[in-house]
Amino acid sequence: MSTSQCAVYQVKDTSEYRDVRFRSYEKLKSEGRTVQIENYQQVYIGRIQPGETPADIKTRLQKQ
């Protein structure tokens, strides 16, 4: 991955993770849960446009 790319990861879409799939990191942290890379899958990889912010990327992906 180059420095002008980004990747989006989501908790795996399985029944095992259903109760935490859309919780925020802050919420999980407050419950004493830790992030484990093996629980995630990459769902997107793409280029970042000059000046693009994480919020811009989220908006762009929601339109797809």
TrEMBL record:
Residue ranges occupied by any YodL-like domain in the UniProt entry: 5-54
Pfam family, one: YodL
InterPro entries per record: YodL-like_dom (IPR025923)
Protein name, per record: YodL-like domain-containing protein
Lineage of producing organism: Bacteria, Bacillati, Bacillota, Clostridia, Lachnospirales
